Amino acid sequence: MKFKLSHLTRPLAVLDVETTGVDPAADRIVEIAVLTLRPGGLADGYRRRINPGVPIPPAATAVHGIGDMDVATAPSFRALAHDLFARLKDVDLAGFGVAGFDLPLLTAEFARVGLRFKVAGRAVLDALDVYRRKEPRDLASAVRFYVGRDHTGAHSAVADVRAAAEVLDRQVGAYQLPATPAALHATLTDVDVARRFRRDDRQRIVFAFGKYAGQSLDEVAGRDPGYLEWMLRQSFLDDVRCLVQRALAGQPTSGVGAC
Q: What SUPFAM superfamilies would the database entry show (predicted)?
């Protein structure tokens, strides 16, 4: 494989981690892969499965295919940490979504074993950032993709609502989605409109954000009601507020319909 990215003055480590979840404070790495590109064109790879020391949630396994049995005999992160830390010393870093996901998870894992992993002084190249900059996901792009024309009058309210309606209509046809608003809403909405919550494999309503990501709303209500009270002071949509109020009142949220 030849790479167009050239003029390397020091190694470039392209990395990816698979994890038990998305919260650096609570979740753990179960696999890491590093492709190191070196000046002169040489490249070498590194891949390790890691026993996270905690159960891997089924929702995470559904994403990356790694279950508890797959890492039962794998080393812990602590056992690999110093070798990996040395491998990533004095290199620039790259990946897809690496700045917002992989590096925070990796930094947290190193911190747990007493190693301070720093990005200052390195080049950090995130392919997802380039993708977002060069392939914008805005209404004008959607009109070109689904309707096949330029969106004239962008950011004019009248033009934008007409374009949005046309794009939505084309999406329903292109993907054979339900044609009635209620049915389409049910298809697109798991728990709440803004996706602050989701249902896990046990159909419990769990947090999809923040420090309790992946944890049951009912359980958090019993353990940390102050967090839910804080949520009620924020600008969450009313469907989220309704669920939070229900949980604070001791009314089960799992197994019931959305508010």
A: Ribonuclease H-like (SSF53098)
Domain that holds residue 216: 197-248
Q: Assess if residue 217 is contained within a domain.
A: yes
Q: How far apart are CA 95 and CA 78, in angstroms?
A: 23
Do 115 and 148 sit in the same domain of this protein?
no
pLDDT per residue over 202-228, tens digit each?
889 999 888 898 899 999 999 999 999
Residue 66, burial from CB neighbour count under 10 angstroms (0-12, 13-18, 19+):
buried
The pTM (predicted TM-score) of the whole model is: 0.69
Q: Which two tokens stand for residue 119?
A: 């990005």
Classify 224 as helix, strand or coil.
coil
Distance CA 70, CA 91 (A): 30
Q: Which of 231, 233, 228 is nearest to 247 (CA)?
A: 228
Q: Is the dihedral of CA 4, 118, 45, 55 positive or negative?
A: negative
Estimate the share of the chain in helix, then strand, then coil, as percent rounded to the nearest 5. 40, 15, 45
Number of domains in the chain: 3
